[in-house]
Amino acid sequence: MAESILLGHAPRPTSAAQLEKRIRTLVVAAEPAGIACTSIIDAALDGADVEHLHLDLTDFTLASEVDRDRARLEPQGAPVSSEDAVLRRLRVKADPMRISGAAVRLDAELSDVPFQWIETDNGELAVELSRPDAAHPLHGWARVAVPKEQLGKAVLGLAESALLDHGVTVTKLDIDVQAEGPRELRLGLDAKLRKGLIGGHVTGTARASIDDRMGVTLSDIALDSGNPLIAALLGAVRGRVAKLEGRRIDLASELPEGIRLADVQVEVTDDVTIEARLV
């Protein structure tokens, strides 16, 4: 039940006040200990469906993987029953929220998000997002902005769990983004990582172009390290990276069924701003 989110004890809430209280408990569990929850939560129920859920996460701080109490975020029991439901309108704002020290500004809205209420043999209640499909696509838009000098911190904070699953610890990640046109980007990274007893710096560069049909083409991809052991490890990666050189990746077709990307815009000033629209 790794993709399930714990929402207290069964049964499911039957009033907006109950749902808001449970979501607030979840928000508190996702923040470091001692952080006062200032998030604004507004919800409305219509039977099993959630008519709307509005979250203002301004000043929310996402706890690191080390600080997160997984037992308070994920159910521990096995599912024994489920009930289909729909979140008709989700609005999330943050001006800003904190991810690994980065100030991330977020404004997003989704509609018709399918999910399930799950009850476990421990008497827990969880929610699990269902996969959208062609008959029930997601609709909405999102805008995310991060100060350019803090982009590496934000990416590292979001990727931390996946990296740890692969036995990789990254203690530093700097990402440089330069705009070379309305849909042309030059990317650079400088990372300090460790895998087992081996550690060192890794540098990388690439160019990315986004066409008007939601295709991304990567070019001039390079990875290197001054540490010969790290460089040798990268040799195993370079073959896969080389296959991406000049290849057009169709974002629209690569996404899961039911998620149709209509437009992506990237703006680089003092901030890196990404806007996306789903239809």
Strand and helix layout:
Blueprint: E1 4-9, H1 16-30, E2 40-46, E3 49-56, E4 61-62, E5 79-99, E6 102-120, E7 124-129, E8 139-147, H2 151-165, E9 168-181, E10 184-195, E11 198-210, E12 215-224, H3 228-242, E13 248-250, H4 251-254, E14 261-268, E15 271-278
Parallel strand pairs: 3-5, 4-5
Antiparallel strand pairs: 1-7, 2-3, 5-6, 6-7, 6-8, 8-15, 9-10, 10-11, 11-12, 12-13, 14-15
Protein name: DUF2993 domain-containing protein
| Secondary structure tally, helices | 4
What's the structural domain tally? 2
How many β strands by DSSP?
15
Average the pLDDT over all residues and give the rounded result.
89
Q: Which series of helices and strands comes N to C?
A: EHEEEEEEEHEEEEHEHEE
Give the biggest sheet: 10 strands, mixed
**Oligomer designation:** single chain
Q: How many whole angstroms does the radius of gyration measure?
A: 21 Å
Organism: Agrococcus carbonis
Protein name: DUF2993 domain-containing protein
Explain what this protein looks like in three dimensions.
The chain has helices at 16-30, 151-165, 228-242, 251-254, and strands at 4-9, 40-46, 49-56, 61-62, 79-99, 102-120, 124-129, 139-147, 168-181, 184-195, 198-210, 215-224, 248-250, 261-268, 271-278. The protein is of the alpha+beta class and 279 residues long. The protein folds into 2 domains: 4-130, no CATH class; 148-278, no CATH class. The strands form 2 sheets. Strands 1, 2, 3, 4, 5, 6, 7, 8, 14 and 15 form a 10-stranded mixed β-sheet that branches. It is globular and about 60 Å long. It starts with a strand and ends with a strand. The model has no long low-confidence stretch (mean pLDDT 89). This is DUF2993 domain-containing protein.
